[in-house]
Amino acid sequence: MKIIINNTSMVPIYEQIMEQIKAQIISGQLKENDILPSVRTMAKELKISALTVKKAYDNLEAEGMTVTVHGKGTYVAASNIQLMEEERRKEVEADLEAAIQKGRRCGMKGEEIRSLFELIMEDE
Fold it and tell me: Does the keyword Magnesium apply (predicted)?
């Protein structure tokens, strides 16, 4: 499993781990009953605290994404992919709405904001 940590990001490392694991589940790279690396193994690979990995795993379990079996490891749980995709969509919509509101507070008109979004999307 490939996880990349951005140490310069304002996003906490445990959240970065969570988001990348969720993305791998949604994309089908991780499937139901796949085992995740142990907390120690992941911490060693990423050169971070085991407590950080544990926090990510605990939060994934609290969200119903994984199941931890004592002595056996952490596994991908059966999940509703459509529900997860809708949740991600709502998060992105909220971020976009916040960006639009910020642009308006800075005096930008709708067309200016739209052209910025088009410019950003050209890079895709």
Answer: no
